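Q: Now give one record:
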Amino acid sequence: MSDQSQTTSGSSSNMLAFIVGALVVAVGVLGWIVYGGGDLDGSDDVTISIEGGGEAVEAIEGAVTGGE
């Protein structure tokens, strides 16, 4: 039988786990900003434009405003 023992340091795997974790957080934050979570310019305006509807658009506009 052999009386050899191996000792390894866990510091390299800890450093790799830290780097991978930091990359996951960075990608998550960038994804949140890019896909609408981050309002970087401060604008809260939403503009919806429907073109080419003709009479249907006028009928809906009258229904929404309460006019006839």
User: Anything to note?
Assistant: The CA atoms of residues 11 and 17 lie 10 Å apart. Residues 13-65 form one domain. The radius of gyration is 29 Å.
